[in-house]
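From the methods appendix. Each design record in this collection lists the tokenized structure first, followed by the designed amino acid sequence. Records were kept in a plain field format so they could be parsed without special tools. The example shown here is representative of the layout used throughout.

RECORD:
FOLD TOKENS (208 positions):
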């Protein structure tokens, strides 16, 4: 991996000007492809790279400056400890599952060196529509995918069953009204990602 140099983040009130077209950025966006979590390995982002990635993730449209989301980062042994909770909960839900399935649940977060949970934290009483707040959390997830690719890592946005399970949401420390927007797995691809078939975008032009 090429040497890392943290980008310059602007200060509040600083004038921002585009530097012109960027062929590298356009190529990254045109070729960005999720890497399956099972195809990831070490190394993952180091502390400086992870800080940069989270700050990039936070630079999303956010009507009302509400920051209606937060991050939970899983690294090191924390991934295994959370996996133990996943396995225990799944054993409660499916007591007769095969041993391989319990192992899958126990090792889910071990598929990548770093997993970032993006938590949607909306305020239904605010004048900014809740839907816009939810969309902002989705934009955070996409920013993390693009940022990870720009840093030279693979990434995948997943939810899976435990994002919607009440006891597991409690294990994450979620408060009433909070929801998991996604778990972003980040690591080094062990095999090149393959482009998948994509439909052409559906486009209409409004005419009165």
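DESIGN:
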């Amino acid at each position: 991996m090429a040497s890392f140099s943290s980008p310059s983040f602007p200060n509040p009130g600083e004038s921002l000007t585009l530097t012109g077209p960027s062929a590298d950025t356009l190529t990254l966006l045109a070729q960005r492809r999720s890497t399956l979590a099972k195809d990831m390995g070490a190394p993952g982002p180091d502390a400086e790279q992870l800080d940069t990635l989270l700050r990039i993730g936070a630079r999303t449209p956010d009507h009302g400056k509400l920051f209606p989301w937060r991050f939970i980062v899983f690294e090191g042994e924390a991934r295994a400890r959370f996996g133990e909770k996943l396995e225990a909960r799944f054993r409660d839900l499916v007591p007769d599952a095969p041993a391989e399935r319990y192992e899958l649940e126990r090792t889910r977060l071990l598929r990548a060196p770093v997993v970032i949970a993006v938590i949607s934290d909306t305020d239904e009483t605010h004048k900014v529509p809740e839907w816009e707040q939810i969309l902002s959390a989705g934009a955070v997830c996409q920013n993390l995918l693009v940022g990870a690719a720009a840093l030279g890592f693979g990434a995948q946005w997943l939810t899976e069953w435990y994002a919607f399970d009440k006891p597991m949401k409690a294990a994450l420390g979620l408060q009433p009204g909070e929801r998991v927007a996604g778990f972003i797995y980040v690591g080094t691809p062990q095999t090149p990602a393959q482009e998948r078939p994509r439909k052409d975008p559906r486009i209409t032009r409004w005419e009165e």
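APPENDIX NOTE: The chain has six helices and five strands.
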